[in-house]
Amino acid sequence: MIWIWILVCAYSxxxxxxxxxxxxxxxxxxxxxxxxxxxxxxxxxxxxxxxSIFQKDIFIWVTDTTSIVVHALTIQPSNALRITLEIxxxxxxNPALSVLSKGNSISIYxxxxxxxxxxx
Length: 120
Description:
Blueprint: H1 2-11, E1 16-20, E2 35-36, E3 45-50, E4 58-61, E5 68-70, E6 72-76, E7 83-87, E8 97-99, E9 106-108, E10 112-116
Parallel strand pairs: 1-3, 3-6, 4-7, 5-8, 6-9, 7-10
Antiparallel strand pairs: 1-2
């Protein structure tokens, strides 16, 4: 029984998951209220932006002072809905987006868009 516990502890990943819920009502990545559970995504989080909580088109804006560092990023719209994550030209963070996973770190499904126009 102890071996099972050791294996579970060794193989359970330390990454959390953050999902977009839009409760902040402002489309800003850096608003903790827009995430479930509340709080900004961390470098250890796998971020999932889908329509499981928010059943309409989603547009997420990354401000000019925000640098995104996450474990993984998935943009997965459902049905005919669209999801757009935009890093604008005035974002000069270096880097503006950093995904740390060595595997499938960024997954973008049909009707999903990642626009990185950062100046960095």
